[in-house]
Amino acid sequence: MAGRIGFYSVTCLIAAFFAIPLLWLISAPFDASPTYAVEFPEVTLANFATILANPYALPSLLNSVILAIGTAAFVVIGAALAAYALSRVRIPGRDALLYLLLLLSSVVTGTAAMVPLFLLVSEIGAAIHPVLGIDSHFAVMLVMSSGLLPAAIFMLKDFVDGIPPSYEESARVFGASPFRVLKDIVVPLITPGLATITVWTVVNVWGNFLVPFILLRDADKQPAAVLMRTLYTEAGQPNLALLATFSLLYSLPVVLMYLFVSKRYGFRFHGGIKS
User: Which segments of 80-208 are extended strands (E)?
Assistant: First the structure.
């Protein structure tokens, strides 16, 4: 009996540890004078009017959406093609190459690589085209995609490995081209894996501060994660009313994506083939 009481007490403490910040995030934007405490708000919508009057607030959210969708497209398409090739083509040292890429992407963090990345993007933008240089959403998408692709390929390859080759062989017997086999046979069967990669990529890009902060110098092109720093005073003190309000708006797209994916797949991310 004492053990059960202790178990439920610890469970309640853990639940409160995660629930209290969420309650603060939900209540503080509607409070006229929020503090760090969770309390019943003095209800007002003035905080939303103030944050929406900020000329950079809504554009920064749009910039976050553009970066998240663009990077997710690069990662999903690139990972699907690479995972299919690595799963079906026998290449000497294939598994070692995959593990090496995954290891390097984990060891060489974004912080350690930012100086060479900044110099590389600057040089490419000056030498080839501005769309590949500093202050370009496209360049930021490429940089973030390169960091996420190794892990995405590693995760998606497991889904492709679960598809029996006989499915593809049957399609080829009836004259299907390699592209049609990939489009009509492989992609529908790894849809849960593609959904997993999409959600994982969007969450990583949505919360990424460092890469867009370094590579996007134009305030009009910076995403919401970078704009968040302007809601602090020069002394480092947060404007709690505006910070909580913008944080709530900033969280909504990710929460809506979670609800959509959860309803569609129930987070039962597994392959479509039963053994």
Answer: none
